[in-house]
């Protein structure tokens, strides 16, 4: 090769690199959406490497304070370069909407890579999972980049009753990016705070009873809690196969729906739940339900006990907006068999979850390739000798109660029967008799009602209090009602545009 040729190539590479950097500077990373990224990729204004580099810089800047991310994938830049190469070659995978886009997954969702999967617990550091979780496989199949693991309330808050939301033994206490003293909520704390603070655009969380809806509300983001079984729980550190579900947490309804379309569907490793729930998936996916007039003719229920005097004042403007957009608000609703429903949520749910947690966690730990704990009893023993004073302070009363259980006995069967009755004659009866499309609640107030029956819900940002702390509004419906809930949530979001980014540093 001649000296002239080498010189020309060098000039080209330098100018190309300079051009790419300039193009990246013109792209607005903050509050960017999947659609923004996808368009920038197509127009050669952005590369996956530039996107990952931006998020890594934001993580380096913000995460020491917010503690939203427990681990960063050391292969993230390698995966970004791979995605860029696939896009240059017009590989078939590059056509997918999430191709080359970084995704943060909650630390209880298994990844078969250099990342740990620990549910925030020191007991699982260094454990080796047999394979990717079902939802992670689906993300990788479309070329998404696993950016890292989001922090979470340790053991998804199923360790101790006095456990602080967003705290775990591995990272400490996560903060709300808007107001440092505010409750960041849990257990998908890091998924919500990291998305809110622009350390990533897309994250996955899990919910057993409020763990997607609640942190989404507290951090001004959108969270979708899918019908149980609509997304695979295979490879997810469990609490209850009956109530656990995996869902997206993003800044917009559109982004959350884009992710939902990718992660739903059958998984032979979560059979028969995903087979049964797959019948709910609409032909053509969920994106088609992003309709600006999605509120028109929707019947939205308001429970008498959900919205107190202060809530009514806070949410009144939203009620007016909903009506202006064509929704019919059915207020002063009362769920039938109130005592039965209350017992199911407060008593029966805890009895069932306690037994299910021990059984399901033991099964998960048994299948790990390597781990220092093989049972709930091992975890309890580990916690007792942990050198961390904070661990001793928090204790583990929930785990100790679960360890006392012995499978599904008479007490548990009765609790499960009461839950089934409460769902059938309570929530479902009220929804069907009043022809309600979705039940509304301030924040995640509806979470327990949805949890015991495996019903879906969506939280959308709804405002900020006097201190600047965010709050949301949740819409919940019957099993498989995601299309309707998406229409409602998207219609509300487009009519209000409430969300705003947090300050540079939490107040």
TrEMBL record:
Coiled-coil positions: none
Entry-linked InterPro entries: Amidase_dom, AS_sf
UniProt signal peptide: 1-19
Residue ranges constituting the Amidase domain according to the UniProt record: 51-445
Record's keyword terms, sorted: Signal
Keyword Membrane attached: no
Protein name stated in the entry: Amidase domain-containing protein
Organism the protein comes from: Solanum pinnatisectum (tansyleaf nightshade)
């Amino acid at each position: 090769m001649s000296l002239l040729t080498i010189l020309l190539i060098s000039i080209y590479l330098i100018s190309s690199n300079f051009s790419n950097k300039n193009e990246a500077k013109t792209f607005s990373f903050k509050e960017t959406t999947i659609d923004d990224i996808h368009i920038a990729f197509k127009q050669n204004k952005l590369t996956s490497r530039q996107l990952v580099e931006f998020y890594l810089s934001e993580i380096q800047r913000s995460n020491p304070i917010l503690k939203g991310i427990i681990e960063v994938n050391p292969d993230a830049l390698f995966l970004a370069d791979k995605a860029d190469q696939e896009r240059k070659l017009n590989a078939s995978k590059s056509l997918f909407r999430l191709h080359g886009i970084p995704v943060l997954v909650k630390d209880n969702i298994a990844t078969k890579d250099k990342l740990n999967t620990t549910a925030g617990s020191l007991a699982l550091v260094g454990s080796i999972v047999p394979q990717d979780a079902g939802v992670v496989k689906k993300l990788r199949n479309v070329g998404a980049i696993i950016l890292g693991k989001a922090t979470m309330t340790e053991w998804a808050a199923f360790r101790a009753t006095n456990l602080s939301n967003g705290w775990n033994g591995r990272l400490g206490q996560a903060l709300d990016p808007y107001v440092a003293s505010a409750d960041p909520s849990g257990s998908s704390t890091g998924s919500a705070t990291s998305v809110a603070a622009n350390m990533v655009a897309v994250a996955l969380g899990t919910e057993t009873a409020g763990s997607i809806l609640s942190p989404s509300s507290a951090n001004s983001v959108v969270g979708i809690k899918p019908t149980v079984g609509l997304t695979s729980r295979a490879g997810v550190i469990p609490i209850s196969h009956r109530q656990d579900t995996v869902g997206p947490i993003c800044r917009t309804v559109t982004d959350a729906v884009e992710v939902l379309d990718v992660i739903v569907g059958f998984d032979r490793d979560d059979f028969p739940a995903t087979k049964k729930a797959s019948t709910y998936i609409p032909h053509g996916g969920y994106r088609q339900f992003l309709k600006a007039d999605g509120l028109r003719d929707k019947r939205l229920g308001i429970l008498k006990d959900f919205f107190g005097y202060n809530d009514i004042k806070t949410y009144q403007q939203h009620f007016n907006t909903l009506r202006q957009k064509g929704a019919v608000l059915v207020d002063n609703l009362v769920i039938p068999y109130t005592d039965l429903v209350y017992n199911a949520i407060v008593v029966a749910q805890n009895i069932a979850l306690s037994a299910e947690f021990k059984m399901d966690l033991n099964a998960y730990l048994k299948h790990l390739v390597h781990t220092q704990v093989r049972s709930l009893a091992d975890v309890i023993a580990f916690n007792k000798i942990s050198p961390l004073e904070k661990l001793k302070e928090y204790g583990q009363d929930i785990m100790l109660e679960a360890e006392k259980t012995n499978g599904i006995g008479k007490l548990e069967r009765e609790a499960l029967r009461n839950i089934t009755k409460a769902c059938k004659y309570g929530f479902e009866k009220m929804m069907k008799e009043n022809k309600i499309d979705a039940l509304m609640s301030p924040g995640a107030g509806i979470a327990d009602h949805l949890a015991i029956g495996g019903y879906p819900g969506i939280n959308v940002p709804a405002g900020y209090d006097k201190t600047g702390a965010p709050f949301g509004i949740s819409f919940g419906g019957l099993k498989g009602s995601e299309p309707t809930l998406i229409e409602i949530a998207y219609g509300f979001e487009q009519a209000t545009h409430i969300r705003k980014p947090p300050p540079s540093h939490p107040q």
